[in-house]
Amino acid sequence: MYSVCKEHLELAIDVFVDEYEDAPDIVDLGKVKFAEWEPPAHCERCKEKPQYLVV
Question: What is the pLDDT of residues 8-24, one digit of tens each?
């Protein structure tokens, strides 16, 4: 699972496919809230706010 900004979305998808050999689901964090999970304060690759969850 990767929480990333828009700039790093493509990289996260590529890493996911390389690791799991399957296409990920992309969740727009601006549209979806989880009851028992809060997204991290910043993207895994930079200091921007994450916009997408790649699972």
Answer: 999 999 999 999 999 99
Exposure string for 5-41, b = 16+ CB within 10 A, e = fewer:
beebbeebbebbeeeeeeebeebeeeeeeeeeeebee
Beta-strand (E) ranges in 1-55?
2-4, 26-28, 52-54
pTM of the full structure? 0.91
Radius of gyration of the chain (CA): 11
Could you report the per-residue pLDDT of 30-42, keeping only the tens digit for each? 999 999 999 999 9
Cβ proximity of 30 and 53 under 8 Å: no
